[in-house]
Amino acid sequence: xxxxxxxxxxxxxxxxxxxxxxxxxxxxxxxxxxxxxxxxxxxxxxxxxxxxxxxxxxxxxxxxxxxxxxxxxxxxxxxxxxxxxxxxxxxxxxxxxxxxxxxxxxxxxxxxxxxxxxxxxxxxxxxxxxxxxxxxxxxxxxxxxxxxxxxxxxxxxxxxxxxxxxxxxxxxxxxxxxxxxxxxxxxxxxxxxxxxxxxxxxxxxxxxxxxxxxxxxxxxxxxxxxxxxxxxxxx
Length: 235
What we know:
- By secondary structure, this protein is of the alpha+beta class.
- It folds into two domains: 2-140 and 224-233, no CATH class; 144-210, no CATH class.
- It has helices at residues 2-5, 65-75, 80-90, 94-99, 101-104, 117-134, 179-183, 191-197, 206-233; strands at residues 11-15, 26-29, 46-50, 52-55, 58-61, 160-162, 165-167, 173-175.
- Helix 3 crosses helix 6 (117-134) and helix 6 runs antiparallel to helix 9.
């Protein structure tokens, strides 16, 4: 965590073990995060891999020079951010997760070296997009796909999902939430549900409502990007 305190950084939080049927145990971070960032299930403790290390006032890429050389032999000069985004995209490919699912339950993931400059470039673009979506910095998240039509107490009382609507009480709901987004997992959590469950009995502030709407966009766009990654890989 000292490498996130010392200066600007980004990184990956990954679980070494996964207990569920499917693997989706990775998420980007740009600040201090604790061991349950991706999952709070037993044995699914997260490990954080910062992209940069701050040592003696120097900012150093946390990458194996030998592996960087192998990548650059295929794609030419690159940057640490490009390599992180390539990895992030690869680990979001549904076909990769399915093909290596059993291995991913017992150890950290391995990512193949890029087969071509074009593939690397395309995956870097997808990974950068995902990272922006997940850190809520991508402009797309500020374009809501949902509506919150009714005024009321804004208190999360009874959470339910029905016909594209997420109800927080008997009168108020978000309309236009895809069912796949409502059920989507990141690690051990279903973000579209957990965010509201954590606030049960509380009145949602304007900023919390805005955060929730941005999250829904983020998850919805994630589906699209994951499908595009699979088309690139054709595993």
